[in-house]
Amino acid sequence: MKLYLHFHFPSVLAPMIHIDTPTPGGTVNARIGKVYLSLSKAHRKTADYVLSNAFRSATMSIDELANSVGISIATANRFARALGFDGYPQFRAELVCGFEAMLAPIDNLRTEVQRPATSTEIIGDSLSEDMANLEATRRGLSPDLCNQAVRMILNAERIYIVGYGASAFLGGLMAHGLDPFCDTIQCTVGSGGPSHVARQLFKYTPRDLVIGISFPRYAEDVITMLRQVREKGVPVLALTDVPSSPLASHANVTLYAQTRRQFSPNSEGAALCLIEAICSAVAHQAKSPVHSASEMTKFVMPWLYQGGTQAARKPTPVDTSEQE
């Protein structure tokens, strides 16, 4: 989502606002542009703040906006009416338009923190949310899509897992889980940024696989990457939340995890459980999975703490020549 607001100040004239495309808060911007010259000094100050902080303003209650601008609550309400709204609630509702998906977690959090509850109740409710998410995810599994996803992973010569934000860490855990059964697997954690990832994906062919991970609020970089590689004919597996997700239209196969959460945008726990389940299915279908896991464990043994077996290790020789 891109928000373009262009401000021009011909001498002392008010800002002329041009909306290139329909944008969040666009109607509010247009209303401000029409009445700006007639606004009082306090209302102009409020208008300037809203224009410069559209998303932040959309998240604020009336008292929060008043405090940020340095005006009274009554002045904030009169500002909304000066723009032609019945009051602040209607002004904020219009400002929110287009930001709904991004603001939903914030509104949920605002509601939840106002609800009297003990820490034990909050923890219990959170675990109940995850159990409900997992059950919904399990019910929504498609046998054909699950089988296709596993075959795509096992048949790929190279795999790149694309995810940003929290999904980058999910991608790292998925790469860790698939690593014993895949020859070459990379992810965006520590990759050097989207442009570096794009340079790597440019080399990918239809024999490879790109796995895209993103949940609300969806990362634009993931969508762009999937679109680009799909145009090159590279197979794409997407992990997201619903069929209307922007990732789904760029993927050959999409698996869904319900990730609803009251205190945050998503339940990473539910997404991680789906990832671990996919890794389990890959391990089950892989060629010689026991041999692969055994050989990898043997190779990394020097870096694994072995507890009581430490005493069995060969001691380091001690030079006693100086002591004689």
Explain how this protein is built:
The model is unreliable at 1-25 (pLDDT under 50). The protein has helices at 26-35, 41-52, 54-58, 62-69, 73-82, 88-96, 100-113, 119-139, 143-155, 166-178, 194-201, 220-231, 268-285, 289-300, and strands at 6-8, 16-18, 159-162, 185-187, 209-213, 236-240, 253-256. The chain is of the alpha/beta class. α10 (166-178) runs parallel beside α13 (268-285). It is elongated, with a radius of gyration of 27 Å. It contains 14 helices and seven strands. The strands form two sheets. A five-stranded parallel β-sheet has the order 4-3-5-6-7, with helices on both faces. A two-stranded antiparallel sheet has the order 1-2.
Jot down its keywords.
51% helix, alpha/beta, two-stranded antiparallel ribbon, 324 residues, 14 helices, 5-stranded parallel sheet
- Name the average pLDDT: 83
The stretches of 5 or more residues where confidence is low (pLDDT under 50) are 1-25
Principal-axis shape: elongated
- First-to-last CA distance: 77 Å
Q: Which structural class do the helices and strands define?
A: alpha/beta
Number of strands: 7
Strand order of the largest sheet: 4-3-5-6-7
Strand percentage, roughly?
A: 5-15%
